[in-house]
Amino acid sequence: MQKGKINVQTENIFPIIKKFLYSEHEIFLRELISNAVDATQKLKTLASLGKYNGDISDLTIEVSLNKKKKTITVKDKGIGMNSEEVDKYINQIAFSSAEEFIKKFKTKSESEMNTIIGHFGLGFYSSFMVSDKVEIFTKTYQSRGNTKAVYWECDGSPDYSMDESDKKDRGTEVILHVADDSKDYLEESKLLEILNKYCKFLPVPIRFGDEKVWETVEGETDKDGNPKQVEVEKPRIINNTSPLWKKKPADLKEEDYKSFYRELYPYTYEDPLFWIHLNVDYPFNLTGILYFPKVKRNLEVQKNKIQLYCNQVFVTDSVEGIVPDFLTLLHGVIDSPDIPLNVSRSYLQSDPNVKKISNHITKKVADKMESLFKENREDFEKKWDDIKVFIEYGVISETEFYDRAKKFCLLKTTDSKYFTFEEYEKHVGPSQKDKDGQLIYLYATNEQDQYSFIQSVKERGYDVLLMDGIIEAHFINTLEQKFEKTRFTRVDSDTVDKLIKKDDVLPSKLTEDQQKVLKDLMETQIDAKKFTITFESLSEKELPLLVTQNEFMRRMKDMSALGGGGGYSFMGEMPENYNLVVNSNNPVIGRLLLESDNVKQGETVRQLFDLSLLAQNLLKGKELAEFIRRTTEKM
After folding, report:
1. What gap in Å lies between CA 141 and CA 79, rounded to an integer?
2. 249 upstream amide cis, omega within 30 of 0
3. What is the pTM of this model?
4. What is the pLDDT of residue 177?
5. From the candidate CATH numbers 1.20.120.790, 1.10.3720.10, 3.40.50.2000, 3.20.20.140, the one assigned to the domain spanning 506-549+572-635
6. Nearest CA among 198, 195, 229 for reference residue 212
7. Which fold has domain 244-380?
8. Which residues make Cβ contacts (< 8 Å) with residue 267, sequence separation at least 6?
9. What's the CA gap between 326 and 318, in Å, rounded?
């Protein structure tokens, strides 16, 4: 028997491993099974090269649980190790890395530890995060000489022991004696959950006990004449060894992609809109499938749907900062051996390969969108309401994506017509400019609430965009920065006649003195702090009073509610501020001046004011009830 002491002079490595090696202790099972997969794949490679002629018909990795003995075992049929290899790969490599790890640890604060994990060969030693003793039984695939199987043991102290073993079969068996503070890992349901999370698509079959399934008995029927079924016990294989993203796109059909989507998200009942199959081998290796789902109005519930893999080993589903933020709304998988097998997101984000992959994915998404638009614009327009949030989010957050997206990003009108940026500029350019030559884009965010304003604008021959998405305030802000001499204004923000240059400017029917009298009268009926009263010479057909809202303040409020209000989020709940526009040419306003009964005059102002509030959906509660009562009495 060989005994030895780990070469760690400063302090015990194992408490540090237990506390800091990985942010989640459950990773130990992923690490051990990944090692078993590596050993198995190496044996398959040797066999394919003619360097191993043994039986490789069954290379299933077995994970077993013995609750009574408090052990978890991971057993493979891979290349195994001899005593020299155990000494080299388990004792020397890991322990020298451990010593370097400790030196790094001594100079780092606790919060910085995750940034240096992943630089050391400590994967096997993650087992000590949940164990107070670990045993290894291993036998090499090589049969030359008197090669003996090896037994290795360590109890979590700097001491280990090695001896010969009577193990007969090739491969490695790792037995974890689970510590009392980790006994929740001795529950079958817990282990099954971890295996499904991290090992669902590993390339070697992983067996975890048995399961009962129903099978049809060929040639037999039950009493009702239906095919007879019996319950049988079969090995429980938890992984799909050949996931769709590893196959060639040319070999796959539409139903294959939809079926795999359901495998990834079994509780999703809607098919994806379309997908992108990634298959890159230069300048880095990258495979995967990204699905475009139908996005609900709540963005947050869509996140954590992209699964990140390294050689089919699950790494994380928290990919913010690893892929561009707007693509975190997509579903699917990304797999690359160039992504470090590490759960620290800060470490992943700083990795140069991850940045290259992120840029490439952005390019592939833009390529796919552009090709869909060019090949079948009609179908692209039909999908627009479901995909626009991806594109608009990308336009807002990624300059490089905007440069591509401006070719296929659409603007939709209230008449359900679609225009590219360039097309829409030509469409409204001749008729919707202000006195300074600035192009005015009129838009609505709610067709029902802003119906009267939309109709009023359209009667004048102007066009109205429908911008009813959840991030439109940010999107509009971005477009104003990108477009030259262009301003966006909601239809109920300012009166059109004030915004757009007109050749036939209407004269006011009220003198300045008359306007002052009316303003004083109206201030007795409304909240002067909340409403700024202005007079404008509008058409006689326009309403006598219009409530509008300052475009800038309303937009800042909308963005603040979403987060990131352009520096205004510190304001918290921004105050409501409205304009009360008096149409000086409406006959009803003129008659107000002729009313000699002050009570009737005040009631008329209040009635007109409430009607303008009603048009903006601002009349509620007590004021709405009072308006209904007053209107009923007049009738």
Report:
1. 5
2. no
3. 0.76
4. 97
5. 1.20.120.790
6. 229
7. Ribosomal Protein S5; domain 2 (3.30.230)
8. none
9. 13
